[in-house]
Amino acid sequence: GITIIASGPLTSEPLAETIRQLTGSDALFFYDAVAPIIEVDSIDRSIAYPMNRYQKGEGAYLNCPMTQAEYERFYHALIHAECVEQKEFELTLFEGCLPIEEMARRGEKTLLYGPLKPVGLAKPGEARPYAVCQLRQDDLAGSLYNLVGFQTHLTFSAQKQVIRLIPGLENAVISRYGVMHRNTFVNAPLVLKATYQLKTNPQIFIAGQLSGIEGYVESIGSGLIAGINAARIARGSDPLIFPQASALGSQAHYLASASPRDFQPHNVNFAFFPELEKENDRKIGKKERRSIFARNSLSLLKKMQEEHQFD
Ligand SMILES: Cc1cc2nc3c(=O)[nH]c(=O)nc-3n(C[C@H](O)[C@H](O)[C@H](O)COP(=O)(O)OP(=O)(O)OC[C@H]3O[C@@H](n4cnc5c(N)ncnc54)[C@H](O)[C@@H]3O)c2cc1C
To answer: Residues 256, 192: contact at Cβ < 8 Å?
Structure first.
């Protein structure tokens, strides 16, 4: 029959096994190891420069160069920063994925051969920096960048302090902090439609954090859409896709259309909204942009509610 699965990040092993059978073994993850994500507008572009290592490969990177003194200051802050206490089961879960502070504790120069290696990142005609922290574009709109290789157990306040020691990130606004925790979630772009139905079985919906989102309101929002759609298909109507220009719809759209290769759960974000069209080439400021999104969103949802008659 019609079923909504919303058993959350700590879904039990037997239920996870059933979900794995429904979705395929590559489509279910059991933990999250995410590097912090930074809002691009908060990166000091007079310091951070765009370049791919050896000018090769795909992707859009920004590079924050460090002198030896800057690196040493960052390094000492990192190894002494406060960490979140790990649970027993997490110790085995993360064996294959070393947090940056742990890597740093293995030796003062270890990071220079790992996430902060400077080779291939000298600006043309300039000397190679002592260390380079790379940021990789994280969303299609190019408004978010993740700190490459910065998976971490640091507390959120410690992350903020340490990241702001990186040249170019002194005023960094962190859109999502790095986390390494147990989290059961599906690779949504592979398995879910924007209606929260499984692509392989439209009678089954996955909602909440298990669908690849994060947060209280996001989970409630996904449950609302899944619930409305479950009721609709029970009555023989088509399921609804919420407009992408609303927060509810932008989240569903992100799940259904993000890149499955490096899919990561995310809180709902203005970067998920479709870009606004410029009026007479006038640049729309961030505050105004967000209030336009909010207004459009409410009017689209009201229209949809009236059209399809739900509360
Ligand atoms: C410490 C911590 C702090 C957080 N702080 C915030 C915050 O400040 N703001 C924010 O927005 N988000 C926060 N979050 C994230 C937020 O809690 C989750 O994103 C959200 O609760 C996920 O909702 P959910 O309904 O998908 O899962 P859950 O809240 O985990 O709910 C799933 C429910 O399903 C039940 N269940 C599981 N299996 C079965 C089964 N087989 N049969 C029946 N029931 C079952 C579980 O018992 C549970 O009640 C925090 C998370 C943590 C861990």
So the answer is: yes
